[in-house]
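We both want to read discrete structure tokens more fluently, so let's practise on a single case. Once you have written the record down, we can walk along the chain together.
***
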Amino acid sequence: MNCTDVQKVQFGTHRLEKEAEDWWSNIVQRFDEEGIKVTWALFRDAFLENYFPEDVHGKKEVEFLELKQGNGIVAEYAAKFQELIKYCPYYNTMNAERSKCLKFVNGLRHYIKKSIGYQ
């Protein structure tokens, strides 16, 4: 999507409701007083810091690292894998594609790994 920084902030903040809207109003007031220009990166970082604390992010990262297929079907495991991988920046680089595949296959049930020839 080709939006300017200003448009991204406008759209992102337009979606805020109730206490999040109040929170943002206070943040903008503080930024204005300090002469800080609100960019998308600044909004995103402030929002994540307030509504997605580092300890929660860490728990999601651990959940991903410990993810196994268990008794579920492969499609469910794959969906959970995709949902959680965003919390592990290492796996989201071009150089990590092999590691990502190994992580996925390693989490499959033993007999499935065996059937695809995984050693």
